[in-house]
């Protein structure tokens, strides 16, 4: 029976769910029940009869229920599973990517057997079998782990046929009404129908902060759709855990199944792991083109060799076999490994630094990062906020700051004690850490199981005199004297609204309810009556936000709870015409690791951006303090009035003349000074973003992306939009965050890093359990090392195949071939270990300004390839010609292996491989020097020794074993000396030409960079002129 699944993320960092080996078999192991992705239902206000809008969904639900009642559950799952299968059957199934490689290996082994290369074919077959066995073992282990984490079923009470029956969750279908209980892990998506529940959504968001869900009839208004995108406050996702339930005495908590299987939120997350977003990375795209370049070079030699073998009278079948053998040389089996070996070692090193990866291709992309975006709270600053104090307002004047909250009275104190969405879970008050700190300061007690209210607050100390000495628009003495203060209604915080509110009532005080609202100072100011606002509201706010404090504001009003309003309508009435109460000031300290980590990134010329939901001046202050914005930069802050954006200089000395910014071109008026940055508010972003969507990119929006360094009061969607637009501007973008509000941006970025100690956000391809931003430059260093290693390995393996190809082509001219053990020596003793060990080269400790190229098809790479191919082929040709001119030279034996030509080219070719290994092991400024990689350097020296000994000390048994010419003439050592002289010249020329290519590349890059900057400046001037002409 197919089962629903839930995900427990405690083991998530250990899995490499994005890897091909796991994805290839994973869909055969894990199966979900499929539900309709377009399920739309309505619930009557008077009862909970389900009316499914979609006709096909209605028929499907009826059929399933009928079969369930008749005990034919499997047929139901077949019906449900059909749409699942359609969704699963994707053309980009990762398992198909390995098919061509597998067929090529089989083709190679069969071909080598026909050429009597039994030993070599057997060695390759053994290695392939062992590798496949290890892969199978790792895949099976990971699948078992994933199965344990993902598979989940439970028994639930379902209302069917007018009665309750206990059924397995695998038999649920959309439209079923289920009873929810404490500690239940939900098997699919639901809509809450009655009561209130508190959920732990850490599986989905990475945050263990409890989330409260409300019944559909309270939060949906006239639109009773169960679509979670429409009514999020009543939507419940599968995989989350019910930690608390609240309902009237005698009632049960009921919810309706809306989605099952792949269509659930959890199912979509699992799909995103099985089929991760394809990364259109230039390096991966050009690797195929690089292979085509190798083939084009080899095609010339291939044609010559076929022509020469036919001319020499070689049999047709042997010509065909040898020609096919050339393909296995030109397309080296180790080439695909070049893409993954560097990534693999980088992932291991990241893991050792507590940075876990579930999307290996993203590692190399990290090496190209140009812009890094950071959340503020919990990322750049400490996780927790400390309550510094409150600044009350009396009669339009701010009073003195109060730090001893426990001795306060009045409506501002009631705000601290009652305006929150905390819950009492597992014998402690739980919720948003900020609200926890505020509530703890009041020393009040919370009872969220009250029979008459949603929750009740009991004040620890009686308040008597203080509020009598101060004048408040609405006195609160009576409420404060009550034994209990009931929370009649709660409206949770919403990012889009930037506020939350409650309606409170003193126990026994009918008709004297109060509405209290808490939120951002900008929103509370807009919602408050002007007569209650102090004249210095903005200046006092600026005073604290410029120092980096997080400031909340509060207001209140009289409100009588009506009976004929929906919850949304009540909220609209509550959150308006407020009397301003004062500021709540929170201190958020910068993490000590933040400034040095950001300094490393800035020195590498990586642009840093803060994206926060906090106040813009707080963001600017924190950005300046941690070094994200340099002290000498002019800072312009956006201000919106009646839909019009203006820019205010918030960094200049008040006594000096402020700079002015043109609102269209975003340039300083009367100056070409570009040393300024923009601090953008969410409302300004919305206006400019909407304009961009309507009319397309414009100079203002482009300049905003170029100069924006602080983006404040940004909603989660706006954070994601910013990242996507930076990527659309052809920038490689990283994102570092720690909360659910960062999930969209983490997914959208090329590299997303989630900071989490426990359950990492499933949205991010990287998770750092060391919760500071030092992980960013560590990841970038490893990304650059991975990309640089991949480049070097591609070049080295390409040269290895072409050097060997040159050797074989020259031998084919004499109808000779390399022997079994000669291939084994070169491929398995030399090349294979060197390739693996080259991947272990660690990144440089210093992050350079220069970024590695991602273009394999570039003048530098292809130029280096052609130069070295020509050079190595030239020296081999010299040896091929001159060995035949030696007096002692005799033609080869009948088998075409044991000959002076084969021996000379084999011995010399080995040195050419080592020369290429030495040249392509140099990777500064991204990789450490070769000698720091002890395994590579040691194996390289070992090969130098063995290859030199094989040349200068001819040993007859050893030569015989390697199928070399062992009956050597007296003049052989003179020939060896000539080979050594040629080798010395070859080394000098190869290294010299490579360094010349690097020098030319550097000069060309510097020139192109200057030209690019000049063109960008010229384009900016033309765009500004065009914008001014069209105003």
From TrEMBL:
One of its GO terms (cellular component) is membrane. Keywords: ATP-binding, Magnesium, Membrane, Metal-binding, Nucleotide-binding, Phosphoprotein, Translocase, Transmembrane, Transmembrane helix. It is found in: Membrane. It is a multi-pass membrane protein. Its main location: membrane. The chain crosses the membrane at residues 117-136, 290-310, 793-813, 856-882, 897-923, 935-955, 975-1000. Residues 156-272 form the P-type ATPase A domain. It catalyses: ATP + H2O = ADP + phosphate + H(+). It comes from the Eukaryota. Gene3D superfamilies: Calcium-transporting ATPase, cytoplasmic domain N, Calcium-transporting ATPase, cytoplasmic transduction domain A, HAD superfamily/HAD-like. The keyword Translocase applies. The keyword Nucleotide-binding applies. One of its GO terms (molecular function) is metal ion binding. Belongs to the cation transport ATPase (P-type) (TC 3.A.3) family. Type V subfamily. This is P-type ATPase.
């Amino acid at each position: 029976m197919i089962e629903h699944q839930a995900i427990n993320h405690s083991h998530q960092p250990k899995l490499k769910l994005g890897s091909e080996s796991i994805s290839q078999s994973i869909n055969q192991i894990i199966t979900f029940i499929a539900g309709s992705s377009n399920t739309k239902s309505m619930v009557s206000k008077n009862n909970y009869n389900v009316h499914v809008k979609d006709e096909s969904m209605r028929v499907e639900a009826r059929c399933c229920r009928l079969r369930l009642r008749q005990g034919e559950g499997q047929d139901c799952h077949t019906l449900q599973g059909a749409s699942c299968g359609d969704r699963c059957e994707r053309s980009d199934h990762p398992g198909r990517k390995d098919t061509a490689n597998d067929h090529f290996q089989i083709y190679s082994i069969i071909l080598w057997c026909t050429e009597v290369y039994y030993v070599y074919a057997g060695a390759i077959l053994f290695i392939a079998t062992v590798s496949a066995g290890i892969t199978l073992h790792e895949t099976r282990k990971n699948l078992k782990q994933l199965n344990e984490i993902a598979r989940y079923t439970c028994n639930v009470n379902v209302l069917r046929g007018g009665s309750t029956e206990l059924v397995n969750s695998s038999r649920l279908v959309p439209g079923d009404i289920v009873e929810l209980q404490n500690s239940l892990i939900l098997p699919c998506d639901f809509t809450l129908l009655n009561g209130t529940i508190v959920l732990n959504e850490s599986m989905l968001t990475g945050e263990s902060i409890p989330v409260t869900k409300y019944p559909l009839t309270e939060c949906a208004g006239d639109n009773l759709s169960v679509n979670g995108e429409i009514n999020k406050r009543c939507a419940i996702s599968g995989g989350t855990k019910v930690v608390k339930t609240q309902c009237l005495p005698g009632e049960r908590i009921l919810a309706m199944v809306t989605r099952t299987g792949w269509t659930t939120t959890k199912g979509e997350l699992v799909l995103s792991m099985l089929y991760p977003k394809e990364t259109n990375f230039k390096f991966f795209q050009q690797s195929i083109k690089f292979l085509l370049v190798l083939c084009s070079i080899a095609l010339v030699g291939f044609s010559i060799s076929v022509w020469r073998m036919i001319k020499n009278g070689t049999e047709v079948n042997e010509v065909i076999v040898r020609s096919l053998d050339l393909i296995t040389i030109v397309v080296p089996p180790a080439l695909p490994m070049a893409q993954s070996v560097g990534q693999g070692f980088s992932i291991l090193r990241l893991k050792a630094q507590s940075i876990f990866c579930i999307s290996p291709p993203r590692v190399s992309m990290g090496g190209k990062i140009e812009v890094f975006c950071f959340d503020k709270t919990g990322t750049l600053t400490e996780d927790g906020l400390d309550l510094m104090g409150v600044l009350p307002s009396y009669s339009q004047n701010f009073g003195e700051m109060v730090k001893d909250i426990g001795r306060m009275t009045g409506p501002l104190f009631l705000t601290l004690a009652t305006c929150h969405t905390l819950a009492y879970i597992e014998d402690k008050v739980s919720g948003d850490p900020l609200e926890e700190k505020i509530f703890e300061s009041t020393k009040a007690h919370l009872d969220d199981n009250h029979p008459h209210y949603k929750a009740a607050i009991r004040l620890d100390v009686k308040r008597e005199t203080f509020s009598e000495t101060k004048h408040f628009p609405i006195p609160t003495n009576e409420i404060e004297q009550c034994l209990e203060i009931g929370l009649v209604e709660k409206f949770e915080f919403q990012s889009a609204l930037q506020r939350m509110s409650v309606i409170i009532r003193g126990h026994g005080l009918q008709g004297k309810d109060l509405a209290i609202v808490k939120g951002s100072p900008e929103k509370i100011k807009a919602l408050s009556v002007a007569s209650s606002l102090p004249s210095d509201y903005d200046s006092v706010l600026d005073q604290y936000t410029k120092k980096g404090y997080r400031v909340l504001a509060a207001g209140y009003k009289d409100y009588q709870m009506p009976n004929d309003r929906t919850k949304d309508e009540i909220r609209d009435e509550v959150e308006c015409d407020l009397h301003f109460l004062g500021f709540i000031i929170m201190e958020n300290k910068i993490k000590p690791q933040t400034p040095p980590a950001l300094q490393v990134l800035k020195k590498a010329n990586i642009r840093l951006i803060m994206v926060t939901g906090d106040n813009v001046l707080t963001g600017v202050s924190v950005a300046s303090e941690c070094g994200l914005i340099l002290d000498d930069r002019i800072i312009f802050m956006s201000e919106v009035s009646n839909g019009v954006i203006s820019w205010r200089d918030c960094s200049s000395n008040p006594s000096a003349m402020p700079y002015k910014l043109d609102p269209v071109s975003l340039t300083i008026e009367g100056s070409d000074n570009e040393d300024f940055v923009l601090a953008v508010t969410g409302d300004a972003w919305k206006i400019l973003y909407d304009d961009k969507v309507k009319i397309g990119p414009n100079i203002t929006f482009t300049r905003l992306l170029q100069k924006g360094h602080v983006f404040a009061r940004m909603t989660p969607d706006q954070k994601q939009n910013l990242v996507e637009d930076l990527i659309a501007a052809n920038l490689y973008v990283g994102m570092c965050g720690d909360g659910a509000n960062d999930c969209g941006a983490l997914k959208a970025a090329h590299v997303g890093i989630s900071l989490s100690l426990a359950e990492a956000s499933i949205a991010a391809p990287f998770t750092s359990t060391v919760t500071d931003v030092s992980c960013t430059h560590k990841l970038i260093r490893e990304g650059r090392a991975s990309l640089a290693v991949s480049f070097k390995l591609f070049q080295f393996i390409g040269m290895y195949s072409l050097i060997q190809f040159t050797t074989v082509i020259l031998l084919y001219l004499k109808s000779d071939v390399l022997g079994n053990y000669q291939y084994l020596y070169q491929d398995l003793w030399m090349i294979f270990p060197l390739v693996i060990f080259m991947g272990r080269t660690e990144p440089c400790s210093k992050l350079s300004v220069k970024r590695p190229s991602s273009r394999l098809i570039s003048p530098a790479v292809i130029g280096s390839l052609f130069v070295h191919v020509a050079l190595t082929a030239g020296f081999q040709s010299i040896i091929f010609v001159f060995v035949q001119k030696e007096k002692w030279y005799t033609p080869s034996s009948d088998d075409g292996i044991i000959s002076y030509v084969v021996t000379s080219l084999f011995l010399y070719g080995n040195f050419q491989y080592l020369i290429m290994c030495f040249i392509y092991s140099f990777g500064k400024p991204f990789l450490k020097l070769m000698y720091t990689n002890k395994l590579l350097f040691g194996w390289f020296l070992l090969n130098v020794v063995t290859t030199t000994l094989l040349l200068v000390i001819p040993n007859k048994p050893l030569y015989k074993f390697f199928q070399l010419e062992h009956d050597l003439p007296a003049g052989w050592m003179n020939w060896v000396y000539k080979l050594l002289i040629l080798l010395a010249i070859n080394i000098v020329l190869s290294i010299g030409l490579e360094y010349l290519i690097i020098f030319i590349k550097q000069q060309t890059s510097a020139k192109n960079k200057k030209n690019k900057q000049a063109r960008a400046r010229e384009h900016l001037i033309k765009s500004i002129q065009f914008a001014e002409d069209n105003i």
